[in-house]
Amino acid sequence: MIPVWALVASFVLPFAPLSLLGWRRLRSLPTLPAPVQADTGFSLPPISIIIPARDEAHNLRILLPSLQALRYPAPYEIIVIDDNSSDRTAQVATEFGARLLPAGNLPAGWLGKPRACHLGAHAAAHDWLLFTDADTRHHPDGPARALSYALANGLDGLSLFLEQRDTGLAEKLALTAAFAGLFAGHAVGRPLLNGQYILLHREAYFRSGGFAAVRSEKLEDLALAHRLAACGLRAPTIWAARAAEVRMYAGLPHLWQGLTRLGAGSLKWAGRGGWLTALFITGGLTPVLLLSLALFGQAPLGWVLLSWLVVCASFLPWARRAGSAALALGLPFGALLVQLAASWGLVRTRFGAGVRWKARLVG
Q: What ranges in the chain are assigned the alpha helix state H?
């Protein structure tokens, strides 16, 4: 009979190839060009920036000044949709001169973020709509670069992968592992949007049904990506250095909630690639499992060290991208956290318990 430790160790075998595949997929993404120079005479259409916000008073104090400081060569408006916040979200939005729109009571069948975004789209005065999360911070040339790219390439819109900022160690380990897992399973050309930053032309938004068409989806960005693709609309997701930054989760409890929500909805939109992502994350945490077995004398220490070496070496480019090669040493623990939270989300969804996000039960 094959020992348990050997079965566990076998999950390391596909890890390195999947990591390499994911890295190649990431590197194949187009990159947002450098800022448009002010002296070129280049002009852009007006834009409406739409921010869904629920209990985001703190984040709005970071986001709104960054939007007020944009170097955008045309009029733009900032709309904050207050989704029944219990903090000073509405007051902060008003203090910084944003246009405030109360979301009102949440109708049956809607989740909060899709509802807020859809209200913002209806209220927007301009033809280009930029949906961005309250926990982002924008560089002055970011929206101009994004819209310039969309117009130059004849796109109906685009979405950006953003840089992470002010991230604690647990967040950095988990998010780096999760990001690598996303690309390990995500086939090139499969619909994908990052809900932190979605730029769409008004006609494309309403033609696809917009967020109203995905009103009950936990991962509304992935659902909307599939709607756009089904309508023949072009809105790729691209890599954007120094266009905007985001801090997705503030602390371990918030991180756990976020990963639980992602796990609960990920397989629905990932297709068969979702199983590759799951296999990748399982391979990534295998050294931790082998270490646990070794502590009870159930696995050879040599195999623990070998698996850790293989996994950390495979994680190395992802760790460097996250800011430090040394992070690779701890990424098996990041993969473990991702797996636990995602599994918990899947279990709760399977048995109808749902997951909590923003003090609401989702799904």
A: 4-9, 15-27, 57-68, 89-95, 112-123, 142-152, 169-185, 202-208, 220-230, 252-270, 273-295, 301-322, 331-350
